[in-house]
Amino acid sequence: MTAAKASVALADSRISATLALDEPIARVAGVSAARAKLFGKLGVTTVRDLVMHFPRRYMDLTAVATAASAPIGSTCTIFGRVHEIKLKRPRYNLPIVEIALVDATGMIVVSAFRQPWLKEKIKAGDALMVAGRIEFNYGFKRMTNPHIELAESKSAQPRIIPVHSATGKLTPAVIRMVEEVALDAVAGLLDPLPLALRAKRDLCARGPALRTMHFPESMAELPCARKRLVYEELLFLQLFMMQESQLRAQGACPRAHVVDGAKLRLLEGALPFTLTSEQVAAKDAVLASLAAPKIANHMVLGDVGTGKTVIAAFGLAAVADTGSQGVLLAPTEVLARQHGSTLGKLFDQAGVSHALLTGSTSKQDRADILARFADGTLDVLIGTHALLEDDVRAHDLTFVVIDEQQRFGVNQRAKMLAKGAAPDALYLTATPIPRTLALTLFGDLTLSYIKERPHAGAGRRTTVLPHGQRGRAYDAAKRALEEGHQAFVVCPLIGVSTEERDEAASKRDGHGESGEAYHPVVAIEDDDDFALGDVAAAERQAAFLQQKVFVDTEVGLLHGGLTADEKADVMRRFAAGEIGVLVATTVIEVGVDVPSATVMIVEDADRFGLSQLHQLRGRVGRGEADAEVYFVSASQKEPALKRLAVLERSDDGFEIAEYDLSLRREGDILGNRQSGTSALKLVNIVRDRALIEAAHEDAEAILAADPALELPDHAALAREVRMIYKGEHAKIGG
Ligand code: ADP
Ligand code: MG
Prior knowledge:
Blueprint: H1 3-20, H2 33-41, H3 47-51, E1 57-60, E2 64-65, E3 75-91, E4 94-103, E5 106-113, H4 118-121, E6 127-133, E7 135-137, E8 140-144, E9 147-150, E10 160-163, H5 172-186, H6 195-201, H7 206-214, H8 222-249, H9 262-270, H10 277-291, E11 297-302, H11 309-322, E12 325-329, H12 333-350, E13 354-357, H13 363-375, E14 380-383, E15 397-402, H14 410-417, E16 424-429, H15 435-442, E17 446-450, E18 460-466, H16 471-482, E19 486-490, H17 498-510, H18 535-549, E20 555-558, H19 564-575, E21 581-584, E22 597-602, H20 610-617, E23 627-633, H21 638-649, H22 653-663, H23 666-669, H24 689-705, H25 715-724
Parallel strand pairs: 2-3, 5-8, 11-16, 11-17, 12-14, 12-15, 13-14, 15-16, 18-23, 19-21, 19-22, 20-21, 22-23
Antiparallel strand pairs: 1-10, 3-4, 3-6, 4-5, 6-9, 7-8
Helix pairs in contact: 5-7, 7-8, 8-15, 8-24, 8-25, 9-11, 9-12, 10-11, 11-12, 15-24, 20-22
The protein binds adenosine-5'-diphosphate and magnesium ion.
């Protein structure tokens, strides 16, 4: 073959390897229709999905040892000869194969549970490789359920075994086998990253990176492979987002708002406080984005209680001055009502017409509000998800404010924005996300950070208590009540009352059992997460507190089972001081402003994420008086208390979130239920911050030079972005 022919053949094979990525998984040898179905359950339908289905963990069996030298507690691989093999059945359904394995230095005992067939496959005298953890029991070194292979088999080499997430009959072993085949099929695939970029960012090639992720020869190879793949995930997403926002901006006719009008000035005069300098900066940034004749997305990031709402008010007043319309979308009824009343007062003084629309607005009021919104007489509409309904039509919507934006999915955001021709958007959030990630998720975006709280004067002290000492928290609440203040008691979502827990704890301690029950951290995203199942526990807890602890004051109860009116009534009575202690089941319903509440007690605090707890405690310490927060841990164990102790040390929401995020998986952070981000499988936003920055910068540069990715050098890149985000168009929105 001539050199030219050889190179054509090579190019052909590279292209077919690349195309193989998008074959359905059933094309892979070893994947039957039944297996393909099981893979579907894992979200794996194409070869691309398969090779991107990375191992959950690795078993490093590269350390070879002898029976004598193998350190107890370590994981290692031992080669030996079977001295004896026995099948025991201590119980009918518990077959155990026990092998005495000897090498030149001594013997270890290998036990394999529920694998009776090993007795048929292995006989005395066979040479074996076993790999696992060395234990010491009953006078022998042992391995329980190790990896076992006949030493003569080709694969019996000390190696690293990847463990992929599996399902039912689709075991990790089957997945390993199929991954091998798939990786062979795509070996030699084209690298979509231009060579110059790879050199600049020091990234290895795609094919080898994929193979290494699945079958590393040493653990030391992994970081480099991972870096390459993290980078490409980020680059592809950013390219996609940026192209999408280019498309959206095409043909739109964004408004240049009046930002120095009479209503805005009236609103400013009506404020009961002076803005902090950060609020002023954020307000100016919002107004500047509204004034510009282009679609502007602005995000205000600030901890709970930093005063973000008032910034939205300025934007909405500017919209009224312009003669167009704005909406303020809030995630819960309680919040929407609160905005309706606090902003409503300001708007009344500024001459901005406004209305509140929620799920519990009466039919008649609703019809009236919809009519006024549709004919343009209403300047500002505040509301919940009710705003998203199809019959909510604006006359001229030019500004959309989304409060607690992390609580809305991309689709909901897109739906809200679609009610205007080319509205500007303002997102308020207490979720600290790095700048570049915000850019990734929203396309073009300007940001304001608010770090300081307006009431610097009031202090807030946080104490973590083991369950047994929760009396100290109740005492603090009693003291507060005597001073005319109020207290929150937040109960976990799923749970038993304090009394039941005491009982359970005494039983457990009585038996001297050491195992601590595993409590998953509850992630709370929307009202649906609050099943009614917790109502009974909260009711019992409220009754317990009323009868045994706070006998002199009224204990109120707020939970997801109440109607909106009932909730509003409880909140009103709490705010008015008629209710001294409010037991709440839900974090969200506590998302309200009662400055005279100075004590917050969170029961079973270890069931919440740190950021959620931090958000929760933001509900006290808003007034003039100092506040006390008690996080009562259900667990006596060190790690739970230690994790909570971060909240004693730090009051910086960003720092806390970062710590929290470092403990969690990426999917939880990226707003989980959002499409598009599902393509980020490896990225960790805390650890990979530098790569996020790099990929963002590179995506911008690439599109600046080649907006439609038409250059030959970008062909593979364009195809990759298209294939990965196939079907995602118009779903992602910002
Ligand atoms: P968040 O950022 O959590 O949404 P809010 O907008 O609800 O915070 O504001 C929290 C409280 O602080 C409200 O009672 C609000 O009226 C008050 N507030 C906001 N800005 C100031 C300020 N500059 N000075 C004094 N109080 C303020
Ligand atoms: Mg708020």
